[in-house]
């Protein structure tokens, strides 16, 4: 990415910036011109860089007075914004930033403020504490940023914000970013902003197109088992699980720990130092699963979150948008899974109406499917180690093991050692709950990908080709259409595994399928097709 300031360009290049997001490309030129800007954009679109780049470009680094103040609703978001500013300003040697928030001994922040920073990032309450102590003086401030303004108002910071804005001079530039635009925000803009330009990049679909969204009907008592099965099948690097209450966060964390997962939690009852420690572990990838409440995780920007799981359906539809915005960040792909018990169906309907999203219904995988997927992945990982990694260090131990023991028994023992030790009460069988949905509801999205047997009107086939031969579900579907001359919509419930696949057709096409795919060679391998056995 080309940028006028070479120090900023260097850091952006290191951070992997390639091009501006829509909110950045629209807001940065206006802020550079000195305009007051209201940025209305969903979470995960790069708002921090949108206000940071113009501020760093315009700061006077010879001046030791506070020139910019950025207000955030939570301690976690304030720390995160500071981290992002410091990354972008890594090569600006005179840049000094200080983060102020409650829950940390105030004397540490006092010492930092005495070093005369140019930028303050803080929560409203602690910022006022320092203003009252005359440690933060805002009469020379050039930039005021309200980040996640809607959340600050929801948390009751309206008065605090007005006190802080009242302590600034009349010539500063104000920028506000918010995922929603309630009336209270517009009241603040009318009172404290100078002819602000409203930039909105939120379309009719309120959710990120890079997030694949599924929901699952499952009984409350089976939700932990549902999470476990989904994690086995999708195997994400980082997973964020949302619960509606602190108590539920504690319960889910405890149960997943029993199942052997690398998991921890954050919520408002935990000490601030503990929360930041957990977040740092999750941010660096040391921790794989984080369980959180909405407020504790507000504004988090963890770039590699592959899956967000709504353990509870959020009580407000807009919370759903904020939650799933933790994945699919700035062009990355992500998944959102929502577990819906019978009593939560009305909340799900509210989410459908609010987001206008295509949230598809799926079934929680059966234990058999989980086992098949896990074995396929283990096979691929082991073969990759054999082909690409040196195993010289293990050669002596392997030789000793093979002296008096059957090789097959040794392999089985090693695979057993690799398995997670699950000390929880295991749940077996199908845990999906049959919830009939009313007319006009999301039933139209019910396209379950579950493995089905033969029925009166349909037949299911097993064929001995799969992902090991380069097939994906899409490629397999195209292959079937080409060989059988059937249309795509006539071939249903495709399941592709490492060495075999399943698909279902109407019974009237049974002879066509057998005739087309019997005695056929695929990539040098003779295919074998047969009716799938009933489960």
List keywords for this structure.
Rossmann fold; alpha/beta; 535 residues; seven-stranded parallel β-sheet; 4 domains
What is the CA-atom radius of gyration, in angstroms? 28 Å
Principal-axis shape equals: elongated
Question: How is the largest sheet built, in terms of strand order?
Answer: 3-4-2-5-6-1-7
Structural class: alpha/beta
Query: Mean pLDDT across all residues, rounded?
Result: 84
Q: Characterize the main sheet.
A: 7 strands, parallel
State the end-to-end distance: 55 Å
What is the percentage of strand-forming residues?
Answer: 15-25%
Supply the number of helical segments: 19
- How many domains? The number is 4
CATH architecture of the largest domain: 3-Layer(aba) Sandwich
Q: Tell me, what is the CATH class of the largest domain?
A: Alpha Beta
Poorly predicted residue ranges: 437-452
Helicity level: 25-40%
Notes on the protein architecture:
- The protein is of the alpha/beta class and 535 residues long.
- Helices cover 39% and strands 17% of the residues.
- The chain is built from 19 helices and 20 strands.
- It has helices spanning 6-15, 22-32, 47-58, 75-88, 106-113, 124-132, 149-154, 158-166, 183-192, 223-234, 246-258, 272-284, 317-324, 345-355, 367-388, 395-404, 407-418, 473-484, 510-517, and strands spanning 37-40, 68-71, 97-100, 119-122, 143-146, 173-178, 197-200, 211-217, 238-242, 263-266, 289-292, 305-310, 334-340, 360-361, 458-463, 492-496, 501-506, 521-522, 525-526, 529-531.
- Helix 2 packs parallel to helix 3 (47-58), helix 10 (223-234) packs parallel to helix 15 (367-388) and helix 13 (317-324) crosses helix 14 (345-355).
- The chain is elongated.
